[in-house]
Amino acid sequence: MKLHKGLVAAIADALRDIFVKNRQADRVVEQLLKSNKKWGARDRAFIAENTYEIVRWWRLVKYCAEMKSASETEEFWRLVGVWQIIKPQHLQKVHFETLPDWAEFAEIDPISIETRYAEALQTRKIAQSVPDWLDEVCEQELGKKWDLEIAALNVPAPVVLRVNTLKTSLEEVKTILGADLVSEVAGVPDALVLNKRQSMQQSEAFKSGLFEIQDAGSQLIAPYLDISSGMSVIDACAGAGGKSLHIASLLQNSGSVLAMDIEPFKLEELKKRAQRNGVTNLETMLIESEDIIHSLSQTADRLLLDVPCSGLGVLRRNPDSKWKLKPEFLENIRQVQWTILSTYSDMVKTGGKMVYATCSILPSESEEQVKRFTKSRKKQWKLVAEHRTSVAKDGFDGFYMALLERVG
Ligand SMILES: C[S@@+](CC[C@H](N)C(=O)[O-])C[C@H]1O[C@@H](n2cnc3c(N)ncnc32)[C@H](O)[C@@H]1O
Q: Among 235, 66, 52, which Cα is nearest to 154's?
């Protein structure tokens, strides 16, 4: 592949938006590709791939370029050039022979970059591209496991579909998409993984609600609630409803799903998705104050608390969150998780069950919160089971789920 100035300019602009204007990487790439219809499929793939790669390996690329930070367009051009030099070794991808002889790349010395790259590999936080504070927190909480986990979290994730059993079956979706293009996932009955990455949102099958895009680890959470037909289920941190829709399909539209959140725009998106999915047993409710929670005391057979978290378990899908996450956020979010767990749990009927879930690899957001909860509510709650998925261990995003029963 030959480097073209137009493509490098596009990647440099995207990086500037992400790192200087602090915009979300997936939005930036989506908007960039939409606004330039003249690029062909290969160009689009090149821009998206290289932008995400540089975001993922940001610290490593800057180290090799001997740059502390970047804010000017020419600095982003240089970083794109430096990435082209280290990429073949780093990702074992054959790319192109030499960097073009452009004025924008005049300051790049391939030999010193190779030397810096070899040095970088000696230090995990540079080689794996993580901020100092995050490397410390994860090492402290995970010990040796952190080495394997961060290496796996730096590999792009596959595209996984959840077949919507309200409308179709796994076999039917396999036939529609082509049985040789998808694979089943052991232990996750509605999941199909695409053998080759591609966007599915424009397909007719998606638009008619035959499947949703949802990681296999995430697909284990709704079934963990141990749902039976006719139950009333509350999903109290429903967001745009990935798991609410799954709950509705497990109920086969019987009983009820109450999807709650503090963000109205997420619930609006959920309503559209529910319609596309053929869901008829779901209502949404905006949490405007804690009074709403108290008014629902002892009403749910099942409660899902898919709490807000660091998102460290889904880093391979959102590599920019490595740079956007801050220690203060982590501290604050643990407090929010605790408040949700200790107050919202009251919505469960005695004899009912709840799942507390995070997409975090950190015990402090997960196991430790549940331990603290069961210890302080010994007479009311008992832990039935807990489970973790891990990119390093099973190839799924890093989710934690605990099933608890209300006994008093
Ligand atoms: C991990 S996300 C949920 C993802 C969603 N369950 C899904 O499957 O797509 C956490 C959600 O909690 C919501 N949230 C944050 N604080 C909350 C609170 N105090 N009460 C309820 N929801 C809250 C956020 O708006 C966010 O949508």
A: 52
**For residues 374 and 408, is the Cβ–Cβ distance under 8 A?**
no
Dig out the tokens for 183 from the structure.
């694979």
pLDDT digits (tens, 9 = 90+) for 328-384: 999 999 999 999 999 999 999 999 999 999 999 999 999 999 999 999 999 999 999
How far apart are alpha carbons 330 and 376 in whole angstroms?
23
Catalytic residue check, 309 = no
As for ligand 1, residues whose beta carbon falls within 6 Å of it are 236-243, 261-263, 266, 287, 306, 308, 336, 340
Distances (CA, A) of 335 to 69, 157, 308, 330: 32, 30, 11, 9
**Residues 387-406: pLDDT tens digits?**
999 999 999 999 999 999 99
Substitution site in 246, 291, 307 for ligand 1 pocket (most atoms within 8 Å of beta carbon): 307
What is the DSSP secondary-structure string of 330-346?
HHHHHHHHHHHHHHHGG
Contact 347, 299 (CB under 8 A): yes
Q: How far is the CA of 378 from the centre of ligand 1 (A)?
A: 26
pTM over 0.80: yes
Domains of the chain: 5-129 (1.10.940), 158-214 (3.30.70.1170), 216-406 (3.40.50.150)
Residue 151 CB coordination number (10 Å): 14
ipTM of the shown complex: 0.99
261 is annotated as contributing to ligand binding? yes
Q: How far apart are CA 243 and CA 353, in angstroms?
A: 16
